[in-house]
Amino acid sequence: MGIKEAFKSLLRMGKTGHAPAEDPISIVLLLSESHSRSLEQLREAAGRAFGISFSGDRAARHSVYVRGIIFTLANVGPHKLSFLRMTKPYGAGSAEFQAFEKALPLDSQRRAWSEHQAYMAIDYVEGNVDLDSKYVVLAKLCAELCDSNCLGIYLPRENTLVPGLEAARAQLNKIMSYKNVKIS
């Protein structure tokens, strides 16, 4: 991923008006507390998700590393992912996201959206596979990162919010069942 693509990822923060062909393929973990995972914790989560050891060498086929000052990236075989960790709610201060919250049909969705204080977005940024396969790769990693701090998951491209830890895990498992994706 080049710097240009990484900045595009940052620029989309807090924006709605989802144009599916333009929005990144992403899963956002809505977090109750802001706490940052170390690179080693991210490598361990990737290792559990894909059954392969991950290094910190950015040239390695299986690695999690920092590029520049703010970009955390993962090479998962032929797939490249980026992590964006923020210590504020997703779309904080955006009138569009306030309207989104009010339009959510379930109380549990509105509660997850209003109560989250931070988030981690994992974007699929590079790889030559179909859309379902991209989501499978993201879901495998997100399932390992989804813990008691997670109030739900949000899929920006799909404009879908799945509230609650157990429902989020169930949705991630459902996505993972779509197909077997190669990472070697």
Mean pLDDT: 87
Instruction: Describe the global form.
Output: globular
What share of the residues lie within helices?
25-40%
> How does the helix and strand content classify structurally?
alpha+beta
Q: From N to C, what is the helix and strand string?
A: HEHEEEHHEHEEH
Number of strands: 7
Largest sheet: 7 strands, antiparallel
The order of strands across the largest sheet is 2-3-4-5-1-6-7
Number of domains: 1
Strand content: 25-35%
Comma- or semicolon-separated keywords:
25% strand; 7-stranded antiparallel sheet; 7 strands; single chain; disordered N terminus; globular; 184 residues; alpha+beta
Folded structure, characterized:
By secondary structure, the chain is α+β, with helices and mostly antiparallel strands. It has one domain. Helices cover 36% and strands 25% of the residues. The protein is built from 6 helices and 7 strands. A 7-stranded antiparallel β-sheet has the order 2-3-4-5-1-6-7, sandwiched between helices. The longest helix is centred in the C-terminal third of the chain and has 15 residues. It is globular. The N terminus is likely disordered.
